[in-house]
Amino acid sequence: VGGEYAFRREGELHLFTPEVVFLLQHATRTGRYQVFEQYSEEVNRLAAEGGALRGLFGFKKDLRPPVPLDEVESVESIVTRFNTGAMSYGSISAEAHETMAIAMNALGGRSNSGEGGEDVDRLYDPKRRSAVKQVASGRFGVTSDYLVNATDIQIKMAQGAKPGEGGQLPGYKVYPNIAKTRHSTPGVGLISPPP
Q: In a 3-state reduction of DSSP, which class is residue 12?
């Protein structure tokens, strides 16, 4: 694919260079904030060079005095409106799916299960469950237990920008644990048909 989609030393500009990936991994594994600052500086530099649209914008400073913090909504109140995107178990790993739920629950935000259902062991644990349960046309993993253990229910009406008829999980990704959660057959591809 050349340097347009994959990193090449002389190819297109990418935010995720080998150096950036190394700095992020090193910062998270060691817990060193100084390394995280190096990672942030490098990502911001690449963004400013045209790697991301946000890097081409800047803030106008000193136009007005800062708003006092006691006049601003509290952090605790703001984070209650944070939501993750809907990513189904199967399209991402069980570990990633659960980690996002744990993080959002700790913050007071909400994670979204996506249309793949959720492991029954997580449904009853307020620290591990996704607050938003998605129901799509395939109804994968949708049970009465799944629905009553939701803070919000999201009904997906259309597939969006994905190719094909609807959400597709190829058969080689439908492992026994995913099939059990989705109430389907291991190894058989799953398609969420258009509504």
A: coil
pLDDT by residue (tens digit) across 50-65? Answer: 888 888 888 888 899 9
Residues 68-118 have pLDDT tens digits of 888 999 888 999 999 999 999 988 999 999 999 999 999 999 999 998 899
Q: Six-digit token pair at 11? A: 């190819």
Q: DSSP secondary structure string, 30-80? A: HT-HHHHHHHHHHHHHHIIIIISGGGG--PPPSSSPPPPGGGS--HHHHGG
* Same-domain check for residues 120 and 164: yes
Q: Which domain holds residue 154?
A: 74-191
Domain count across the chain: 2
Residues 49 and 80 in one domain: no
